Amino acid sequence: MTTLVAPRPRLVSPALACVFMAEFGALTSLYLLLSVLPRYVGGAGAGVSTAALMATTVVGELLTPRLVARFGYRGILAAGLLLLGAPTLALPLADVVGVGLVFVVCVLRGAGLAVIFVVSGALGAALIPPERRGEGLGVFGAVVSLPALIGTPLGVWLADRAGYPVVFVVAAVTALASLGALRGLPQRLSVGSAEPELGVVAVARRPAMVRVSLVFAATAIAAGVLITLLPVALPRSTGDLAALALLLNAGTGAIARWWAGRIGDRRGAHRLLVPGLVLTAAGMLGLLALSNNVAVLVSSVLVGAGFGIAQTASMAVLLQRVPAAGFTAATALWSIAYDGGFGLGALAVGAVATQAGFPLAFAATGMLGAAALGLLVRARLGRSTNVAAAG
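Below the sequence we write its predicted structure tokens.
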């Protein structure tokens, strides 16, 4: 008697491919400017530009689930892409109007970025087959890591050779061109349950969700510090070292996100949080040797690997702990940890760097990762104690 084996569901549907395309264009626009704007602003404003972007993003992410519930995915995502792209065309005027224009543009782009992160993440989680979610998140992570691989070093390279206005126009066009992918997206999705949609506040009341988010935020702080401040910390005499370091960081991160998805399905995504933290902290501590070019490159690789692993693992863990009705809220919580960490790191460590120097500021970021590791270990010890007491 022949046993029929049901075929595995297709991992990437046409709708999910459209999500990939929309976020690819949006994130390329983001990363083209992420290291360029701090250099363009210069001085104490280097970290403030990234902080303004990410602070607005965090606020927007709190509001996006309600907007999606009212207006649907496609319309809100279109508004996000417009906010990310159109204001960027005004950046060349900052030479005339003043640096305040840069921060206004960052605020508007942050609002657009909030929508893009939450909507694309929620759509991705819903469109990936549940039995292949870890693998799907890994593929999703690798795809959306490509903009960092391309955009971060390309933005620095273009700014040095063609000037800042060229980078600004390319970033705007890249975001606006992504509007073409929205036709293939659903306006709304059925969560397959009678449960009402969970809000961000309801999800954030769960201690386990907050703990995972804080651990992930520690790795996001390190990534934000590296991407934003490393090009500022390295002298121009090092040539293309900053661009190469950012390229290696992004490339390693893309591979790590894909790998973490495959391994997480087999062994449990929660097991990958500690390796992600350890690699990220080690990379930031390695930047104590900022004057050593090899140390800079190795540290960039370690931070990329750790952050990539933590991105996929933390998202998988958060989605595992909520029903389908909580996917949008869980994605928003993850995005808040990402963007809050990214912006807070750039602002706080940038301020420390002006007083103590970049090597010590980078090392302090590494110590923060070690503290987050202690949070994880303490939580695991607490669970073990409770289990033993119950037995």
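The CA atoms of residues 38 and 45 lie 7 Å apart.
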